[in-house]
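Whether sequence alone determines local backbone shape is best considered at the level of individual chains. For completeness, the protein is quoted in full, as a sequence line and a line of structure tokens:
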Amino acid sequence: MHRLFLELIPGGVPVKKSTAQYQVLLATVRPRDPAGKTRRRMAAEELADIGRLDAKLKTMKAELKAAVLASGSHLMDIHGIGPAGAARILADVGDVARFPNRAHFASWTGTAPIDASSGQHTHHRLSRAGNRRLNHVLYMAGLVQLRNDTPGRAYYRRRVAEGKTPMEAMRCLRRRLSDVVYRQLAADDQAQKAGPGGHSGATLLSSAADLPPGIGTSDQPLPGPVPATLPPPHAALETPAPRTAATSRRRTGGVNVQRPQRASARTNDVDADQRRRSLNSAGVPS
């Protein structure tokens, strides 16, 4: 658009202007040659496209703001972070509990400087690692704070007064903003875990005396009996079969020996003695 107006207006346009300012300038342009008329038509079409895109951006910004507020986040309370920046942070960070502390978070966002000291000279350089999208969000937030009377601008000026270059002071400001964002994310996470009643675990959808939300007693079938993988316990306690006469023999020195039947011999002697006594009492010689 700026290039087209450089060709439409004699002397060109000194700086880039907004859509409304370009529309005012376009109304004053009346080219007579075919090339000028073509450029004016192209400029009018591009301005119409920009107007439609601006309306879409406003609608999307309102939707993002509503989504961020619905999530319970207070990132937009930080000066310089709007709905788009807050939505980007929430989408990329996810669960802030995966970062043990603010130093890990700063390393992930690429705002932690890298030590590049040599000898007696202490120096740090910019880190090119980390999430560059979040790094850009923090950079834009730092620029917004520098343009307004904020604690970020005071911090930036204090760093410059200490001898830092403007670029180094801006890196320090981004590192400080990373810590601010981490603290806000951690505070929002603790507030969401506490629930509306102020106690951890209490929510509007569940309670300690009821089933978890969305789960009923008939949602899942009960498991069937577990298949047996070991023998029953009574199988190992079964008594062995009684031994027969053939199995009562044992091998002694390579010779099979019959076990003497002591109980049977004693019984036979007792019977013979009783028979002899009965015969003597009857007068019959034995």
In short: The longest strand covers residues 250-252. The chain is about 50% helix and 5% strand.
